[in-house]
Amino acid sequence: MSPAKEARRSVADRPTTARLAGRGRDGAATRARIEAEALRLFAEKGVDRTSVRDIAQAVGVAEGALYRHFPSKEALARSLFLSRYGELAARIGEIRAAFPDLRSRLAAIVTHACRLFDEQPALFAYLLLNQHDHLGAVPEATSGNLVEALAVLLGDAVERGEIPPQNVTLASALALGCLVQPAAFVLYGRLAGPLSLHAEAIAAGIRRVLRGEEPD
């Protein structure tokens, strides 16, 4: 082969920016499919009873493809929990910035959570059933911690006199319980869904808890 032909072949074989970008897009799409199928399987079967092979077969890739994105099944489970938990925390921060008072903020948070549950019940099931395994790894920063983000929002309400002075971390836990337990009841068929049908009642219940009022 002449030097000129060899040079042309070398250039042709070299990955172009477009080809590399295409690979990057394919990798991102594969990772998204892995996360979606893993989330579904973890919610249905539990992390322990879900194998890497189960996830790979659901995605339609070789098991090795999973290890190119996550070092282990446990790392995948942890990444899923922290990223989705962090997304909910970020949404609370956005609502705090967008709405002026506690009543409207709570209504927006509950509405968002109920809609998310109705659209992605597997996500809620996974977060609910696996929180004990991962909450210890949640960062303390408000941006990634749902409880801390909610505590800041409730701290605003205390400062403005919208609710009595109280431990806002405990209040956040109580408020989340008012939301999570009805979601669990819908998930297991104890309460008729969709959860969005109960959003107004849930928000009202949270307000009563935060004000220290007895149920009507």
UniProtKB/TrEMBL annotation:
Domain HTH tetR-type as annotated: residue spans: 28-88
One of the Pfam families matching this protein, by short name: TetR_N
Signal peptide (residue range): none
DNA-binding region: 51-70
Keywords tagged on the record: DNA-binding, Transcription, Transcription regulation
The keyword Ribonucleoprotein belongs to this UniProt entry's keyword annotation: no
Stored SUPFAM superfamilies: Homeodomain-like, Tetracyclin repressor-like, C-terminal domain
Source species, domain of life: Bacteria
Coiled coil stretches, renumbered: none
Residues spanning the membrane: none
Keyword GTP-binding appears in the UniProt entry: no
InterPro entries named in the record: DNA-bd_HTH_TetR-type_CS (IPR023772), Homeodomain-like_sf (IPR009057), HTH-type_TetR-like_transc_reg (IPR050109), HTH_TetR (IPR001647), Tet_transcr_reg_TetR-rel_C_sf (IPR036271)
PANTHER family reported for this sequence: HTH-TYPE TRANSCRIPTIONAL REGULATOR BETI, HTH-TYPE TRANSCRIPTIONAL REGULATOR RUTR
Protein name: TetR/AcrR family transcriptional regulator
